[in-house]
Fold these 3 entries.
Entry 1:
Amino acid sequence: MIAIIDYDAGNIRSVEKALKSLGQDTSVTRDRDVILKADKVILPGVGAFGDAMDKLRKYGLESVIHEVAEAGTPFLGICLGLQLLFERSDETPGIEGLGILRGEILRIPGGGGLKIPHIGWNSLAYPNKGRLFQGIPEESYVYFVHSYYLKAADESIVTAAAEYGTCIHASVEQGNVFACQFHPEKSSEVGLKILENFVGLENI
């Protein structure tokens, strides 16, 4: 069973729908025991960094997420879920993230005719080989919706990158923890393959 963490963020149901299309049993939940017993855990979300961290703490989910990460259970952050895994964000200075991964979330620089937020399809480059991208050619297109981007402290964990006014660290992998800034659940066949690769992971 795949637990999808419910913390009142947007876009949770579209992730659930995509997983069900792959034949997966899912539970949208904030129940600690259900999350800890799950085979896989996903932290999706669309929204503001500070508000999301407040909700995770309000529902007692911060410590649960750390337990999942430490237990070796495959964990996937999507969009805001990626950003929350890191230490801090320009969106809400002074609010600490989960700090499971090292790095910061920066505002996408304006200028050059680029629209912010970044909404649309961008191709991916693979700076390091990642398990989520097995069977997916480099330069495949995925769908982004965001105004802030990840700059990971350790670039060896970056498995996919995209260009949009700057180099966006679009996906990371460290042990059992994975994350995508883009939305695999909205990225057509490529996105479903990424989710399928995640579903097929073993515990670490």
Note: The longest strand covers residues 167-174.
Entry 2:
Amino acid sequence: MGPMRALFSALFALAVAAIGSCTPATPASEPALWRITDADSEIWLYGTVHLLPPDLEWRGPRFEAAFARAEEFVTETDTSEAGVREINRLTQELGALPAGESLSRQLGPNDAARLQRIAHGLNLDAGTLERQRPWLAALQLSYAATLRAGHLPEAGVEAVLMPEARARGLRLSYLETAAQQIEILASLPPTDEARFLSQTLIDIEAGTDALTAMDAAWARGDVEDLARFLEPQWRDVGPRIHDAIILKRNRAWADEVARRLDGSGRIFIAVGAAHLVGDDSVVDLLRARGIAVEGP
């Protein structure tokens, strides 16, 4: 469940709308948090996971102090009811195969057999999957497999924090529109789409050990360990997918963080953890600009 697990850490709204538990963190550990300040700004960067086991404890004192100070809460995309409706509409529009085409015909015999086997095991309608483009089928399958492993969207970080932010009257904003999120995968070349689905099928059949280990690394704030998990996963899906899902967005988000630093206020930014660790992360890009970023 490698690349798709990384995708859930990188591409929240599309994964949730389109479609064992871990050991709780000890009180002394919590997910990584970065802080950027100047004379009139304080910005926190918090790496999230969007589907989690409900018994996984991730709230710690550093997080609580930062979130309590925030005046604005920033997520990857608009997850209001209207935003989710737009994501669903665009997903159905851009994720459907042309009439007369089927998903299995775009796959090799091994992948076609895996598709049928996994869909049956997850109680998914194979006929519905057959009408979907490979990128959407990959999302559906991985989402279902993650649910089967006991990870729930309502236990994910953004799902927990958004009602609290609304109750406190924080300003709400996001880094991408629904169209921008979906276009990331909808514009992949056919060969990359097929590779994406193929690797997803392999990962699902490999089981949930990687899923559990990644959640544990995230929950204890071990960014080096998390980066070691992610690096081979992105290599497996190929450089174009890695660039589309992670690197291009990192560059755009670093620009946005720098722009907000030129303004004022206290801003809490929560994005998929895969964007904040490893080479060319948002944190790396900001530091390369000479911006001081406190944190790991």
Note: Residues 16-28 have pLDDT under 50 and may be disordered.
Entry 3:
Amino acid sequence: MRVHVRLFAGLKQLVGGDLDEEFEGDHVTVGELTQHLAERYPALRPYFEVLAIAVNQEYCTNRDDVLHEGDEVALIQPISGGADEAPTPRYLVTAAPLDADALRTLVLTPASGALVVFEGVVRDRHEGHAVLRLEYEAYEPMAERLLSQVGEAVLRDFDVHDVAIHHRVGTLEVGETSLLVAVSAEHRRDAFEAALAAVDRVKESVPVWKREYGPDGATWQEGTPPRPVS
């Protein structure tokens, strides 16, 4: 059987691209796959302590889970448009510039007395050194699914009316928006607290990485070990 392994950002650079690994028999466990990869690709071995594994765009927490022919496995390291007149989706990963007004219109209801729109913006400095631009990469189908899970969790955990989250990928210049989170609620405190929680959950769960370009070159930014949406 053959398993297709997706790699992103720095991991892709280490081995040159995605992998197709062959095994005898008709199945292999997630643990057996990761052991095989660590042995065959020594450059990947130091990362397995902090990697999360996604199988068919869902995080896998059990290394005894069985993989079959046709399954897609993604190694998720720590993480840092439609046609005209198409409705604005609530959860989106896109290379197009983000539209805060569209999200504001999407989540606002007649009962909403508060609406918070958070914009994550590319700044010109990071940890004391200059930043010229950023490049974002995502495991896009899974990222959109995780954005939706973040929104559902916020709607469950906070007294809010609606949530929308858009994340941009590609090269962004200083001053451009990389992340939009919009939350509507009856009261301002609920809207602010829910928006903050949504941003935090995006940062810790959604498979998006960024490469920072400075005067001395480009580096992929380290992040936090990814985890499923709580």
Note: The domain at 2-76 is CATH 3.10.20.30 (Ubiquitin-like (UB roll)).
